[in-house]
Design brief:
The chain is mainly β and 339 residues long. Helices cover 4% and strands 58% of the residues. It has a 16-stranded antiparallel β-barrel. The longest helix is centred in the first third of the chain and has 13 residues.
Length: 339
């Protein structure tokens, strides 16, 4: 715990400028104003930005304690350049630098994370092709950077949205390695029933390019406002191929959009053993560290807007395996800064 407090103080001293949303937040396909086909670290932010080029620089620091008080430190730096040619085309290129330290081992990686071209076909339809971040619902099935694919979003009106994604969800393996590349297809539908109730559903297909593995998923997600600044948000999915299920639900209170603002979340997650073949793509990869064991348990998430453009977040999970019932305690401290 002393390590966590000391690191938290160091991260707090680093907090000087802006932040982005954390991936674990619930996202709807363009119904949420914070997700208008933009990534957490970039996108065409301003309708008046036509014929302009701008840079986005972001920094993310993470300190994590897991079973046996093993400390993991991850530091990411992102540099994005976004160019808008006219009212139709937008281009983005993003470079990511990542350093990981676990015990006495350290690894680093440079990656061209984003490289996409976006076209606004009409007032209701946007298409983006290339290497991009893909985050679905709360990220229980997938939250992955550098996904090569084609994504389209159709908004016939302010209350309805349809999204289709077709691509590969692994960019970190040799394309010649048999059975490791996975293709992903997602049909995602969302509806705003009222200001207080948003619901969505998706159908996903994931398989290796060699056909050695094939999983189909059906999922549902939503947000229900039960009081001012208080809501329940969730994601539920079922692997229909293996008859395995998983869900994560959160009771959230507060708002950290303004300087000094706080938000508090009380979460619960339960994922059957072998619901996924790998944990590489989910936003909950620490909780679901070993897919054959599964995960169940509560968590708390506290987030504070410490400066105008930066957020400090603390997570604590008290989890156990679905198989074997071994403990999986997790503590995380994250700082995200946008410059």
């Amino acid at each position: 715990m002393k390590k966590l407090v000391t690191c938290g103080f160091c991260l707090l001293l680093m907090t000087t400028l802006a932040t982005s949303a954390f991936a674990a937040s619930l996202k709807f396909p363009d119904l949420d104003s914070a997700n208008k086909l933009q990534d957490d670290f970039g996108g065409n932010k301003d309708k008046k930005s036509e014929n302009k080029t701008f840079f986005t620089i972001a920094d993310k620091s993470e300190y994590k304690l897991t079973s046996g008080d093993v400390a993991n430190i991850k530091h990411e730096g992102k540099v994005y350049v976004t160019a808008t040619a006219d009212d139709i085309y937008t281009f983005q290129a993003g470079l990511n630098y990542e350093v990981k330290t676990k015990a006495s081992k350290e690894s680093e990686k440079w990656e061209m994370e984003n490289l996409w071209l976006q076209a606004k076909l009409n007032k209701a339809t946007i298409v983006r092709g290339g290497k991009q971040t893909y985050h679905l619902a709360k990220g229980l099935l997938i939250d992955q950077d550098g996904v090569m694919g084609l994504r389209s979003i159709y908004n016939p009106d302010k209350n309805n949205a349809a999204e289709y994604f077709n691509g590969r969800d692994s960019q970190d393996v040799d394309i010649t390695t048999s059975g490791t590349m996975r293709s992903l297809q997602v049909l995602n539908l969302a509806h705003k029933f009222s200001k207080q109730l948003h619901l969505g559903t998706y159908f996903a297909n994931q398989e290796t390019t060699t056909g050695t593995s094939h999983n189909r998923f059906q999922g549902g997600y939503g947000k229900i406002e039960i009081a001012p600044k208080t809501n329940i948000n969730f994601e539920y999915l079922r692997n229909t191929t293996l008859s395995a299920t998983g869900y994560v639900a959160e009771l959230q209170n507060g708002n950290n959009k303004k300087l000094g603002g706080w938000s508090y979340g009380l979460d619960y997650m339960k994922v059957d053993a072998n619901t996924f073949e790998t944990n590489d793509y989910t936003d909950f990869d620490t909780q679901y560290a070993t897919p054959k064991y599964g995960f169940k348990g509560p968590g708390v998430i506290v987030s504070n807007r410490v400066t105008k453009h930066s957020t400090l977040q603390f997570q604590r999970w008290w989890g156990r395996q679905m198989v074997g019932n071994g403990a999986i305690p997790i503590s995380k401290l994250l700082l995200v800064v946008n410059f």
